[in-house]
């Protein structure tokens, strides 16, 4: 125990420093997810370092990216990083809501020594590196103790999605060893290192079976009076739960509000309004982009019966968008998408359906 | 205007050299380079990836010292990639040689048993070398040998692939929507594995390692599906054989069923009476049903604890005191709230 405490202390002092903002170079080892917080704060989810870094981007000005279209974007990124497109992976695309500038989480290379890079795309389509060097940042570890045990070193929690709401950063992930369903909630500004609290997320099927249910991707949305998380589970249903339920050590069972169909792999989602109604736009690997009506989200019991009258929220497939790999909301009428078509990947602004 | 003057001045053809495979050095440039801004230098000497569109240059820094312009790339030049350097009228292409390496092999797939419960949740694929991340699901096929057909999308195809940091082990999860009962994918598509049928998991030969070399050979794991295992792990039922005092015999445990190979290596350990974890080595045997702990130091007489973290799982995701699926209509609910449970072991 003493050993552990010492380790945690050294962790707090060296790798993550105190929670107060300092200027320097965060030791980012990998980036699988990005999210924006207040005042241009960029959250960088690093599964290998098992931490989230909150970086002050200073990104306060932008020219409109509403007409953005960058063709062969992975070739261009490769050119910047000195590799061919096959060694470029775009892990996440996020828009800074304050400026409309687009930030990309990129990995250069495919091996264990691959390098994480953040790139910024402005309205003119020009790509520049947002260097994680000499920046003001804070960090929050996602595990309470790092064990130097050789076997323990193989364990990684993939970060599948991050979002910021109500002053809290919510981090969803999946372990490469156990089927844990922990959603981590970190108040921001980050408090003392190690203050991420875990909430166990469950899935109740037809009122009978209850299972752990890791979240694949989510967004936040106000349903009735409750600021809520709308999430897609790894086992596919779309569920909701109030953010206020995300208390330390809590066990939360999501209410199923839609069945998304089989072989459906949700990648990203966000909420937008059109014609006075709210929708969730969701990108999937198998079913393209889905526009989900939020009309029935307020339902109390959700889908609990096999042949219940409530069939869940309805959705339509957005036929014109295919090969969408990443999606984020740009403004009230546009989204930024990363689309893969035969032999080429395009980053573009598209009008919301 | 400035540009044309530069071109004229460059007519003498600068000399381009790759220094130690790390930087590009250009000599024979006009004296005016001393006063150029970094942007002007970047426009004067451009390094691009030959295979890509020439419009974008590599990130890096340009510096002039003693008449030599040095370009240091932001990331090291990658072996096997051809780069083009343009300095006025002079151009030069270079490719750093890729080290030749033996191809990687699949060394092991866990669970190692050839009979697996039909609700098996995950496999670990072990490789002899670090592998390339990305697009891995296209290299995996699960065939139902009994019915002679390929199982459609059996795995959870995560964009964030579940690699160990050294990229020598990847975790493959069977779509939990086709394991969990009363869930739509299972109701509509049926299970991935069915009791009594034989399956082969094939790893294709063209899976590339981190050095872009395909595997030495394809790998096949054939197994027969057995009845679902929906039982929580119960350490009280384990057969524990205490070692003899004075020697370094193994303390051995028979779990009665296979446990998750990765978790069991780190979530079961031995503590002395003071609660200190003993140093030693763990080996697994008999398709992950047997666990042996050989201590570093000889056993002293006394009481020990076999300690088990309750998030230990079997390959079907059942935990200590908590099955993968909790049947809420059954009187037995979730009972374990503690983080560890212990079994006393007396060495005499």
UniProtKB/TrEMBL annotation, chain A:
Keywords: Signal. This is Uncharacterized protein. Residues 1-19 form the signal peptide. It comes from Limnoglobus roseus.
From TrEMBL, chain B:
Residues 1-19 form the signal peptide. The keyword Signal applies. The keyword Signal applies. Keywords: Signal. This is SbsA Ig-like domain-containing protein. It comes from Limnoglobus roseus.
């Amino acid at each position: 125990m003493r050993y552990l405490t010492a380790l945690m202390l050294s962790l707090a002092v060296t790798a993550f420093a105190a929670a107060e903002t300092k200027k320097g170079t965060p030791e980012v080892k990998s980036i699988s997810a990005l999210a924006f917080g207040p005042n241009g704060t960029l959250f960088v989810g690093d599964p290998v370092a098992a931490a989230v870094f909150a970086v002050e981007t200073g990104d306060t000005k932008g020219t409109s990216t509403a007409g953005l279209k960058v063709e062969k974007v992975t070739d261009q990124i490769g050119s910047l990083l000195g590799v061919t497109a096959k060694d470029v992976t775009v892990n996440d695309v996020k828009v800074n809501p304050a400026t409309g500038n687009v930030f990309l989480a990129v990995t250069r290379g495919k091996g264990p020594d691959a390098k994480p890079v953040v790139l910024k795309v402005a309205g003119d389509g020009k790509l520049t590196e947002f260097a994680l060097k000499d920046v003001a940042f804070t960090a929050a570890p996602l595990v309470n103790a790092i064990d130097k045990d050789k076997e323990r070193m193989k364990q990684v929690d993939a970060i599948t999605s991050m979002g910021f709401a109500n002053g809290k950063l919510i981090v969803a992930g999946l372990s490469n060893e156990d089927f844990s369903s922990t959603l981590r909630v970190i108040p921001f500004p980050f408090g003392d290192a190690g203050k991420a609290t875990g909430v166990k997320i469950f899935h109740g099927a037809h009122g009978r079976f209850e299972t752990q249910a890791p979240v694949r991707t989510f967004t936040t949305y106000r349903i009735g009076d409750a600021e809520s998380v709308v999430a897609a589970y790894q086992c596919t249903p779309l569920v909701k739960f109030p953010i206020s339920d995300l208390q330390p050590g809590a066990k939360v069972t999501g209410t199923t509000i839609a069945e998304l169909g089989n072989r459906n792999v949700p990648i990203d989602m966000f909420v937008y309004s059109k014609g006075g109604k709210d929708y969730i736009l969701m990108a999937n690997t198998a079913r393209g982009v889905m526009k989900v009506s939020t009309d029935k989200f307020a339902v109390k019991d959700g889908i609990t019966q096999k042949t219940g009258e409530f069939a869940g929220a309805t959705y339509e497939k957005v036929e014109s968008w295919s090969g969408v790999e990443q999606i984020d909301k740009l403004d009230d009428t546009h989204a930024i998408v990363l689309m893969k078509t035969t032999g080429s990947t395009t980053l573009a602004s598209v009008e919301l359906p | 205007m400035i540009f044309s003057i530069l071109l004229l001045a460059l007519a003498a053809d600068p000399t381009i050299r790759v220094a130690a495979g790390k930087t590009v050095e250009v000599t024979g440039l006009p004296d005016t380079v001393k006063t150029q801004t970094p942007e002007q230098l970047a426009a004067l000497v451009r390094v691009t990836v030959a295979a890509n569109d020439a419009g974008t240059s590599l990130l890096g820094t340009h510096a002039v010292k003693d008449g030599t312009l040095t370009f240091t790339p932001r990331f090291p030049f990658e072996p096997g990639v051809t780069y083009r350097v343009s300095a006025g009228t002079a151009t030069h292409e270079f490719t750093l040689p890729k080290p030749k390496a033996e191809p990687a092999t699949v060394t092991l797939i866990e669970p190692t048993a050839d009979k697996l419960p039909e609700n098996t949740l995950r496999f670990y694929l072990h490789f002899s070398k670090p592998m390339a991340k990305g697009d891995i699901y296209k290299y995996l096929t699960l065939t139902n040998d009994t019915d002679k057909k390929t199982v459609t999308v059996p795995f959870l195809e995560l964009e964030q692939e579940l690699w160990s940091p050294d990229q020598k082990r990847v975790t493959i999860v069977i779509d939990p929507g086709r394991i969990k009962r009363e869930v739509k994918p299972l109701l509509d598509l049926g299970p991935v594995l069915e009791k009594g049928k034989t399956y082969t998991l094939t790893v294709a030969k063209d899976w590339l390692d981190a050095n872009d070399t395909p595997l030495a050979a394809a790998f096949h794991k054939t197994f027969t599906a057995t009845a679902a295992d929906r039982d929580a792990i119960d350490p009280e039922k384990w057969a524990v054989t205490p070692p003899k005092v004075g020697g370094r015999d193994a303390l051995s445990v028979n779990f009665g069923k296979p446990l998750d190979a990765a978790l069991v290596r780190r979530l079961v350990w031995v503590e002395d009476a003071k609660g200190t974890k003993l140093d030693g080595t763990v080996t697994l045997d008999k398709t992950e049903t047997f666990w042996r702990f050989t201590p570093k130091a000889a056993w002293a007489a006394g009481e020990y604890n076999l300690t088990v973290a309750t998030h230990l799982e079997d390959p079907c995701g059942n935990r200590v005191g908590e099955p993968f699926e909790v049947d809420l209509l059954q009187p037995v609910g979730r009972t374990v709230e503690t983080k560890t449970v212990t079994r006393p072991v007396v060495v005499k």
